[in-house]
Amino acid sequence: MLRSVNCTSSLGSTSLFFRFFHKYPRSCSSFSSSTTAVSRNIRRLSTPEAAGRRLFTRRGFNLRSAASRSLNGQFSRFSIRAVATQPAPSYPGQDEAEKLGFEKVSEEFISECKSKAVLFKHKKTGCEVISVSNDDENKVFGIVFRTPPKDSTGIPHILEHSVLCGSRKYPLKEPFVELLKGSLHTFLNAFTYPDRTCYPVASTNTKDFYNLVDVYLDAVFFPKCVDDVHTFQQEGWHYELNDPSEDISYKGVVFNEMKENTYGVDSGGDPKDIPKLTFEEFKEFHRQYYHPSNARIWFYGDDDPVHRLRILSEYLDMFNASPARDSSKVEPQKLFSGPRRIVEKYPAGEDGDLKKKHMVCLNWLLSDKPLDLQTQLALGFLDHLMLGTPASPLRKILLESGLGEALVNSGMEDELLQPQFSIGLKGISDENVQKVEELIMNTLRKLADEGFDTDAVEASMNTIEFSLRENNTGSFPRGLSLMLQSIAKWIYDMDPFTPLKYEEPLKSLKARIAEKGSKAVFSPLIEKFILKNPHCVTIEMQPDPEKASQEEAEEKEILEKVKASMTEEDLAELSRATEELTLKQETPDPPEALKCVPSLNLSDIPKEPIYVPSEVGDINGVKVLRHDLFTNDILYTEVVFDMGSLKHELLPLIPLFCQSLLEMGTKDLTFVQLNQLIGRKTGGISVYPLTSSVWGRDDPCSKIIVRGKSMVGRAEDLFNLMNCVLQEVRFTDQQRFKQFVSQSRAGMENQLRGSGQAIAAARMEAMLNVAGWMSEQMGGLSYLEYLHTLEQKVDQDWEGISSSLEEIRRSFLSRNGCIVNMTADGKSLTNTEKFVGKFLDSLPENTSGGLVTWDARLPLRNEAIVIPTQVNYVGKAGNIYSSGYELDGSSYVISKHIGNTWLWDRVRVSGGAYGGFCDFDSHSGTFSFLSYRDPNLLKTLDIYDGTGDFLRGLDVDEDTLTKAIIGTIGDVDSYQLPDAKGYTSLLRHLLNVTDEERQIRREEILSTSLKDFKEFAEAIDSVRDKGVTVAVASQEDIDAANKERPNFFEVKKVLFIFYVRISQYKFSRIFVYLLGFKTSLV
Ligand SMILES: [Zn+2]
Predict the structure, then answer these.
(1) CA of 257 to the centre of ligand 1 (A)
(2) CATH class of 631-842
(3) Per-residue pLDDT tens for 571-580?
(4) Which residues form a coiled coil (predicted)?
(5) Domain with CATH 3.30.830.10 in the chain
(6) 188, 272, 663, 1062: least CB-packed within 10 angstroms?
């Protein structure tokens, strides 16, 4: 969830070498954007339930777009190399470390990340510490405990939430939230894995960094939650009873969070089992596992390595050795002697064709012991070869079979003790289940027998090497990505440095392929690990329209029994306890307590915004922006075309048009060949639309962007391929297009279920402004509805669609109005100009149509979108410019403060929602409130409506205000790698945001006063009075709301099929954020 509001969102790269696509750890965490997916309990890792629900989540990144996937998704997984141009600082001598109580175990220079790494052991407790030194200013700290759960009560997950709720030195309700509010962190979060819990922080500001480290260390070792049952109740579970005459219900942050996780055993917790957990067990788990002897600590960056040990010794010296390290040991599971099959039901909506909602997945546990690095790397290559791109054979054959609509759980998983491989399809009909299984096995057989195409091997090789060289982790700190790779071995007592050293194994793999041919390398792997591996578990999931209500009924029954077993006194006591907890939650921390959280002063904050070098010029009459930045010999480029002359009715075709450009092929090249060519010559090309309102203008910014990257020496190839994609691709492949449509529909349906808040936000924007309307047409509920009709139309009128696709191309492809954006070092920029010129000269001169004026919105109304769910997403939004509000930098501070205090306390803490937040889009003037996985509906709306009064009644002291300002600056100055800097600069150019204006906004932010808060109340009142409401919610809750407030909601039913949860924690306007960048005016 987006508590941490880093404007640029992230790409976490985690596992060892081969994490090419859609494989992120289920990074569950309490706050910033969280939650784990992977299989949970390591002891049951390969059981079908676990394997069947390896559901991955990526932090803040829109997976749905094929475009973004091809550019960032599959290329950013390798994140091993940190840029370092100066020699690393030297390490403390033996003496200093000794004096602080540490012995040096080993020391290495890791050339892959130009870092010096030392492994220490704290002598008294045995705690292990890795201290990595280099010149990366984005410093990272992380502490990791091995926490294998015994059951599905969710202890590790509840503990992960709870330790951040106050500690010995920081006795607040939530120091974590104070850090979010008032620090410059570039990362702040926590993750629960199936067998470990990680607490990482990052910052570029040294003082800030050490503040964060201290709060985290105190939190994990001395949390208040082990003495205070209220935290356990709040974060874990409790019975709630407001009045003895009412029904008892379950409440708890983790309980609600896991409601959508419907299956299996889970370190995250199963809502059926969470209420079995007692406070005693919870305390004992902390005592046993949150101990230095069971901890592994990571430091990374350009700070003083001696100081790191100094900080640690202060904490670690307070403990004696414990046997925790042995008791938390994770034992490998023996391989089964034969295949197994599991059939399970999952809750499905009643609408749609139930028959087509089956899914099947084949899972192999690859080995009963960890694999050596060579094998692991080779399996990673194999994974990419089989599944990494749309042209990869296993992926392509499954999707083209027409048997199902999207892959599930596909690929290698190597982050846990024993690696696994899974592949499956969803959206299949009952009678095709068998066929899918056969197709998978036959394809694997065929790949083992015939091997892979040479071009494909070369494309994978180049892709992998490019990723290694680029090491683009997005806004995910590089040091954290390294930590997660290292910990995947370290946590099992293996060498923590091995996973960071890829050069040698890569070289030798390449040599083996060159010498023996790829077949000799990969075929035996398929044979051994898959075809002849007896440990194969097939999971079939069958839709059950009754299951959701059945589960609800069961829960209700349990609660009724609980109530029936209570005496009148018990009930009175419970209602008193409920009241007490609520009161405690709603009582703010006293100012003295708040002061104890260390924070920066305003004087620590730079007075000027971060400037990106930017030069506007032209090449052959076309505007070109150049950003002279060190990029390690990589050229990043964007070519921007105007969408202004496109006909309205063609808008919803744009996403599929973009996908077709990359995945349909030309007269001379099949799409497989085109894809391989892109993989061999470049670091990736993507095409996608971008829309946004522009401050002070009526007409929106609406563009089509072609984005690409390559080594500078391959720039000519890059521009030739972009030209080929734009001009030569032919829209003739009806069957492929049909696949695109059904995959997109399936993706949208998943989004509706997992990220209802994004759908609601898009819907509200579509009512309020044109850019929002356009985005919604291309990625909201309207788009989903369009896809439903399009699916029919592909069969009936393919000619028509094909010529519409051509018409789209004609309408935007022109040098007129085109802008080229380039990021690389100055010399490389100059050297590539001739290729840009050639590319531009080949573009047509004029667009065919005239300029179309956009003026479309959805009708203003309160809408409720019905989906099968147990939790709601509730939104309300209005345009505060139209109420007379004039943009001021203080609005960023105020909206952040509203989210961090009022909404956090009311919607999350006492309301029981997983999140409540607000967003102010300064480009359009839209102020929106949203909740995430919310058990309430009208009650949440009342909280939104109370925001104005909250602001008027607010009394913020100097300290709180400073924190709010610093936190806002932290968002504005978020850490960016060079490609992100260049891209953000382009967006600012497109949205008319000048550096002068950024300076003004920054000054306004820095001088925000209480008076600004009070004045903002009026603007917020206009949202209360004139705003629109959109809720994505259950039928039951909507009915109840309409009963309480007759005709409040217009009910909108969506015909859709949903599958087992694949969550996305994304709160965003779909396209503005598409590549993970939100451009603020500052
Ligand atoms: Zn959580």
Answers:
(1) 6
(2) alpha beta
(3) 999 999 999 9
(4) none
(5) 99-330, 340-545+1062-1074, 631-842, 861-1048
(6) 272
